[in-house]
Write a structure and sequence with these properties.
By secondary structure, this protein is of the alpha+beta class. It is built from two helices and 20 strands. The protein has two domains: about 110 residues, no CATH class; about 140 residues, no CATH class. Helix content is about 20%, strand content about 30%. The two termini are about 20 Å apart. Belongs to the flagella basal body rod proteins family.
């Protein structure tokens, strides 16, 4: 009887499913967070009677086979890169991407990471950085005595300096896209890194064809749908319970078989 092992794989798969759903719910208020969905695949099959096999001397063939599957396993988590809602803020350095694309930040080790979180701030040197202090790429430094910052939809950064009514252009923000966004690896802290699966980073200007624009004074909210997550959680719980029941039933059947005299 293979039911014990088969049902056990189902319980482990649903445990992974619940873990993914729990992470989605936990990040429901995380800026720029993209929800994920666990993906599964069936395991190999034991072929006890092959379809199409000859069943008689007259050459008749079996129309169906007898295949017993050995369960299920997790194959990955698919990140759902749909647009999150835009929330207005009071900060001139808060930026939301309306459409495709990522901000690029330079990590301390020299590598680069990518993020949808546009809650930027200024360093002590007047450089625009993320909440961890990592500078954005390309770098933008605001002049001393800057009283206001203006960032256009196409990423042009202009600064109003005290005593001068005319803004000074100080930089150009860019966005980065990938052929396969779902193939990027999450690093935590709202950062992602490129992988072989995602393809190479493709730099572009905001507003280019297939690239989003910037919204100053806004942040992109998480795209987590709480109602959908709760529904998925209930379904995962029921599936876990059914697999548990299958193990209990198989155990009872084996006990009954052992008691036959």
């Amino acid at each position: 009887m293979k039911a014990l092992g088969i049902a056990a794989t189902g319980m482990m798969a649903q445990q992974t499913n619940v873990d993914v759903i729990s992470n989605n719910i936990a990040n429901a208020n995380t800026t720029g967070f993209k929800s994920a969905r666990a993906s599964f695949t069936d395991l190999i099959y034991e072929n006890q009677s092959r379809e199409g096999a000859v069943t008689a001397e007259e050459g008749t063939t079996r129309p169906i086979g007898l295949d017993i599957g050995l369960g299920v396993r997790s194959v990955g988590t698919l990140r759902l890169n749909t647009q999150g809602g835009l929330t207005q803020t009071e900060s001139q350095l808060d930026l939301a991407i309306d459409g495709r694309g990522y901000f690029t930040v330079n990590l301390p080790d020299g590598d680069q990471a990518y993020t949808r979180d546009g809650s930027f701030r200024l360093s002590a040197e007047g450089q625009i950085v993320n909440h961890q202090g990592f500078e954005i790429d390309p770098g933008v430094v605001l002049p001393d005595n800057t009283t206001a910052v203006e960032i256009s939809e196409t990423g042009i950064v202009s600064a109003y300096v005290e005593g001068d009514p005319i803004p000074v252009e100080v930089g150009q923000l860019t966005l980065t896209t990938f052929v396969n966004d779902a193939g990027m690896r999450p690093l935590g802290n709202n950062l992602l890194e490129a992988t072989v699966a995602s393809g190479d980073a493709i730099p572009a200007l905001p507003g280019d064809a297939g690239v989003g624009i910037l919204r100053q004074g806004y942040l992109e909210a998480s795209n987590v749908d709480i109602i959908r997550q709760i529904t998925d959680l209930i379904q995962a719980q029921r599936a876990y319970e059914m697999n548990s029941k299958a193990i209990e039933t198989a155990d009872q059947m084996m006990s009954a078989a052992n008691q036959i005299k």
